[in-house]
Design goal:
Serine Threonine Protein Phosphatase 5, Tetratricopeptide repeat; 15 helices
């Protein structure tokens, strides 16, 4: 799992992943799971192959557990039951550390439910996978699908600013070759449109940290803190930024707040 400083606005979506995909379900759209599975499996990246490769690294006990879940999926009679099992399968892959597979299954759920929450969960799972993935093929797969998921969430709920912030963070993690500044441009546009949104300033602070612009990071993060003092991520980011500028006192203060959030 990511630490608090890495979550940023994605913390909320990942919290939803853990809550929804490890025990809860919502009303399905009525579409068939097999159609969505085939759509993923037909890609050049090969989601089916990604699943197969991940399965090959499982031990006997893990295979037994996965087989039981897949049998449960086969036996599920209604769309609602199938979606509930798919969420369990996605959560199971997540717990095994196989984030691309967890994201792929979460995307199947999002296709069926077609809510901005479900798409946000899928996007956050793919983003989590992208951050920890070194394989170029898997990075492309996760990055492309995170973008698709967050864009879908935006189309369903355009007023939810966090979806747009998460899309920008995905571009920051995997910049387009033809537009490497896309994340910054998106966030600046959001800053202009939503000048009182803490998530935007948290994301801008994160980008400043990524590029070593510590004073700029502090400025943006302090504004985020003023707008949303209860945000669990801002103190962690500020602790690092102040540490890098040599302000040990403030670094210690925010570090303590980070650990108690």
């Amino acid at each position: 799992m990511l630490n608090r400083a890495q979550y940023l606005t994605l913390f909320a979506a990942l919290f939803l992943f853990l809550a929804l995909y490890l025990g809860f379900s919502t009303t399905p759209s009525g579409q068939k799971i097999v159609e969505r599975s085939r759509a993923l499996q037909g890609e050049s990246t090969g989601f089916e192959q990604i699943q197969k490769d991940a399965r090959a690294h499982l031990n006997t006990a893990q295979i037994t557990a996965l087989d039981a879940l897949e049998q449960e999926l086969t036996a599920a009679g209604s769309d609602a039951d199938q979606i509930a099992v798919l969420k369990k399968i996605s959560g199971w892959w997540y717990q095994q550390g196989q984030m691309p597979v967890a994201g792929g299954v979460a995307e199947q759920v999002a296709e069926l439910e077609n809510t901005d929450t479900a798409w946000s969960v899928a996007g956050a799972t793919f983003y989590n996978a992208l951050r920890g993935e070194q394989n170029a093929v898997l990075r492309t797969f996760c990055g492309d699908h995170a973008i698709k998921a967050f864009e879908s969430a935006i189309s369903l709920n355009p007023e939810q600013v966090e979806h747009r912030v998460n899309l920008a963070l995905t571009y920051a993690e995997n910049p387009p070759k033809d537009n490497p500044m896309k994340a910054v441009l998106l966030l600046r546009e959001l800053e202009s449109k939503y000048p009182e949104n803490a998530a935007v300033y948290n994301a801008l602070g994160r980008l400043a940290i990524k590029t070593g612009q510590w004073e700029r990071a502090i400025q943006r993060l302090e504004k985020a803190m003023a707008l949303d003092p209860g945000n669990p991520n801002t103190p962690c980011l500020l602790a690092r930024a102040y540490e890098e500028t040599g302000n040990k006192a403030l670094a210690a203060t925010y570090s303590a707040r980070c650990q108690t959030q």
